[in-house]
Predict the 3D structure of the following.
Amino acid sequence: MNSSNLINEIKNKLSTKDKVELFKFLYEDISGKGVKGDTELAHINKFEARILKMFGGSGTINPETGLKQYFGGGGGGGSAPSTTTSFVREAPGIEERKLELMDLAYDLTKTPEKLPAMQIAGLGGLESRGMQAAGVTGVGAPTVQSGINAAQTALAGPNISQFLNPYQQYVTGEIARQGQIMQQGIADQAILSGAFGGGREGVQRAELQGRTLEKMGLAQQQGFGTALQAAQNQQQLGLQGAQQLGALGVTQQTMAGNDISQLMAAGGVQRQLAQATLDAQRQSTLQQQYEPYQRLEFLKNIYAAGPTSQSGITTATAPQTSPLAQSIGTGIGAFAAYQGVTGGQKQV
């Protein structure tokens, strides 16, 4: 008879009390096969098995019984535990969600974010024109130089000759001719009177010549005075023109500087707007990149402020006697009683 049939026959013939005694006997027999201090048999779940291994249990297979064994975990026979460790955990549903949040955070942060580079707005069109204009110096210099040249010419002295009346020589010549005619008249009159070459004729000739020379001098003086006044007027006008040219040169330079200032000011506003646009684009990109982190932070705050419950697990360095072990011992006793009734003989 094979072992399964024998077990079925025993199960059918034994009473419940005998089965308990048999169970106790079998428990003591099988538990005695443990090594390195293992003395107990128990049903455990996977989480409890992980705890046993975490505290040094081997988790190997007993070669004689074929059962899992966890020696080396601090146990020692049936002695009372020397150390008790308590694990306080969140309720399963809450703990699962928090672990999921940690996994999401890990997956999100293991890949570095590529931050957008800082950008600087360049010079705009107006500022570029202003910079180019600022590089051109001496805008009013030609006009100022013309004024300097005009002033130097004016200060060199008036050119009277260009204002002398070209008909002045005709005036003096006519005066001289009229004087000669009058001289001839004096001579003709002296001949007619028989006094030619006399003293009276000489006095008349001298007087006539003096008057002629006086008239010629007055005419020349008047012409020179007119020419001098015209030359002086021209000199004064030249100096005034030189001053005006100098002032115009300064005005040109000032206007050019004002134009440059206006170009740079307007161009600066353009560049500020361009820089603000670049900064806004970068900030928008950063916000899009870090939006997932903000959602994680939001969930973290929700979980931290939400309801929580805890469960506790207590473990000991030495196993404690369990009801299961006691029931197995009862079964072993029942089996021993049965062996006594049958005389220890096997039926075939």
Q: What stands out?
A: The longest strand covers residues 84-90. Residues 75-81, 316-348 have pLDDT under 50 and may be disordered.
